[in-house]
């Protein structure tokens, strides 16, 4: 099979890496590194900027924060680097970390380097060069959710993993935090979301089991083995990981999980091919997760609405940065439509209780 190129493109104007500063820094940590890497930028990432640096005998990924106003605690590259370093021995799907730079004079932002894992990343549609039957897709689907379940089973009290997040009080912090972030990033063309925010505050469940949560667990954040796609070899984008509620993490993932029977706008806005034959429905995912973990939940509405609203907050923060000119990525110009859709979907779930 030929190499899967993913969404690599030329670096966006104004977002180019300064190799004259970067390469001397890299040579302090990587022996015999070359001077002429092929540099491409991933267009799929909507938060941190991600680049590939392909040298003759080394293939690396660089992640750095974007320009512009940032929510408190967001885009923390050193935290993301050290979190993955600690988690790697317990969850081998984390890529190998190489080095982190906290000196913003090098690239204008903190950044880190990690090894590139060679495989397939699923985006909006299945890759054109694959011919997977429904059974293969089903195996990929189960493997995907099993990796989230496996993450939630890790004992976070070992080896300093509890430093990943504050733990107790997680639910209240999340609801309060995302309410504030949405308000602070609201633009004229999106809903106020007051009904959704008030409902979440009034319907917070009692805090139960805590675990390591990824908080951005999507099909386009895992890497599939190109030989056996049901074998997941990597899990990416740990920026939002914490110690939190496992069902809230599941709700976050399901906010991206679009089904075949969803609206046209939902299917247009989807990030991943969760709608194709062989994929589970959202209800089936919840039932599978609860059966495998032994967690019981009578009403999943809070977790579903939270996931949708949180995603609306994430999308709106990205759109806000674009509207202020902090990023020139034109793919962000219509994200306000996604915000609008997610808020309206949240209101529908509150009314009808649909997963």
CATH class of the largest domain: Alpha Beta
CATH architecture of the largest domain: Alpha-Beta Complex
Strand order of the largest sheet: 1-2-3-4-6-5
Q: Please name the fourth-level CATH homologous superfamily of the largest domain.
A: Aminoglycoside phosphotransferase (APH), C-terminal lobe
Shape: globular
Indicate the CATH topology of the largest domain: Aminoglycoside 3'-phosphotransferase, Chain: A, domain 2
* Helix content class: 25-40%
What's the story with the biggest beta sheet?
Answer: 6 strands, antiparallel
- The low-pLDDT segments are none
What is the alpha-carbon Rg in Å?
20 Å
Count the helices. How many?
Answer: 11
Structural class: alpha+beta
Overall strand count: 10
Average pLDDT taken over every residue = 92
First CA to last CA: what distance? 38 Å
Give the amount of beta strand, in percent. 5-15%
SSE order: EHEEEHEHEHHHEEEEHHHHH
How would the blueprint of this fold be written?
Blueprint (H helix, E strand, L loop, with lengths): L7 E2 L9 H8 L11 E5 L6 E6 L4 E6 L12 H11 L9 E5 L2 H4 L3 E5 L18 H19 L17 H16 L8 H9 L8 E3 L8 E3 L7 E4 L6 E3 L1 H9 L9 H6 L12 H12 L7 H23 L11 H18 L3
Antiparallel strand pairs: 1-2, 2-3, 3-4, 4-6, 5-6, 7-10, 8-9
Helix pairs in contact: 5-10, 7-10, 10-11
